[in-house]
């Protein structure tokens, strides 16, 4: 099953009555960690694509970005500038940068998260509204939205919004970055941006997520396992782990004496 954590729990409870195993992929609140020695232009582009592709309606959307304090201001300034110039429109239009949300209900839910974030004290940097007038009023569009001053206690900081809403925060040390990234009920995907391979492996090993991409994002392969920790689910798709899950093991002993 792929869906929300709440529905996944119900699936698991129902399956338990028949002692039926389940494989659950239940979404994420996925972090980027961008260090000061990263390829900054590439990281900015990937953070942008990681949250605004499919209007953020992906379980592995990178909805949190933790950026080293020494590059934070310029990084966020460029990211906000890019978000403001994205063109909303239907996916069949090749000039479209970001399409609509899947339904009016999803649009209303995302807008409610945005309002709650503002009410709770998060600072809005760009976005938060429906598409401006110009032929898209009837569509389920929301402008690319970026917040900072988001804390883990806020709904913006803890819930999977499933929309084009990004929260950005700064960090000063590796330990601080890892602690911030792990402060989430989810643990599906994470991105690490650094030119230091030692740092990359250190951080990847400490992140409480099932998949880590270094100096790239939204990368999966059919031969490698995909699955999460914590509220992001149970089990793995793809790779040998998936084959093992779908295999019923049997031990047969025959005495030929």
| Backbone CA Rg | 20 Å
Largest sheet: 7 strands, mixed
Q: What coarse outline follows from CA principal-axis ratios?
A: globular
CATH-defined superfamily of the domain at 5-85 and 150-245? Aldehyde Dehydrogenase, Chain A, domain 2
Helical run tally? 8
CATH topology of the domain at 5-85 and 150-245: Aldehyde Dehydrogenase, Chain A, domain 2
Enumerate the spans where pLDDT stays under 50 for 5 or more consecutive residues: none
Structural class: alpha/beta
Helix proportion: 25-40%
- Which second-level CATH architecture of the domain at 5-85 and 150-245 applies? 3-Layer(aba) Sandwich
DSSP E strands, number: 11
First and last CA, distance: 47 Å
Mean pLDDT: 95
Specify the CATH class of the domain at 5-85 and 150-245: Alpha Beta
Structure overview:
By secondary structure, the protein is of the alpha/beta class. The protein has a domain of 177 residues: Aldehyde Dehydrogenase, Chain A, domain 2 (3-Layer(aba) Sandwich). Helix content is 33%, strand content 16%. It has a seven-stranded mixed beta sheet, sandwiched between helices. It has a two-stranded antiparallel ribbon with strand order 1-11. Helix 2 packs across helix 3. The protein starts with a helix and ends in a 12-residue tail after the last helix. The mean pLDDT is 95.
């Amino acid at each position: 099953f792929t869906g929300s954590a709440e529905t996944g729990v119900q699936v698991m409870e129902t399956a338990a009555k028949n002692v039926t195993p389940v494989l659950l992929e239940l979404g994420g609140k996925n972090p980027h960690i961008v260090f000061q020695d990263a390829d900054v232009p590439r990281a900015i582009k990937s953070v942008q694509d990681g949250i605004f592709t499919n209007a953020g309606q992906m379980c592995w959307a990178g909805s949190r970005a933790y950026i080293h304090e020494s590059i934070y201001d310029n990084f966020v300034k460029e990211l906000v500038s890019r978000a403001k110039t994205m063109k909303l429109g239907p996916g069949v239009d090749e000039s479209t940068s970001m399409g609509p949300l899947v339904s009016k209900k999803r649009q209303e839910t995302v807008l409610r998260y945005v309002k709650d974030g503002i009410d709770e004290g998060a600072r809005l940097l760009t976005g938060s509204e429906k598409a401006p007038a110009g032929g898209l009023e009837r569509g389920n569009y929301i402008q690319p939205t970026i917040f900072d001053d988001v804390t883990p206690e806020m709904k913006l900081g803890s819930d999977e919004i499933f929309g084009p809403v990004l929260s950005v925060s700064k960090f000063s040390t590796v330990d601080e970055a890892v602690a911030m990234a792990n402060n989430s009920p989810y643990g599906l995907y994470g991105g690490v941006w650094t030119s230091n391979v030692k740092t990359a492996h250190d951080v990847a090993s400490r992140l409480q997520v099932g998949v880590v991409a270094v100096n790239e994002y939204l990368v999966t392969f059919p031969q490698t396992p995909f699955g999460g920790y914590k509220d992001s689910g149970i089990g793995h798709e793809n790779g040998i782990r998936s084959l093992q899950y779908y295999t019923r093991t049997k031990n047969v002993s025959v005495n030929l004496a």
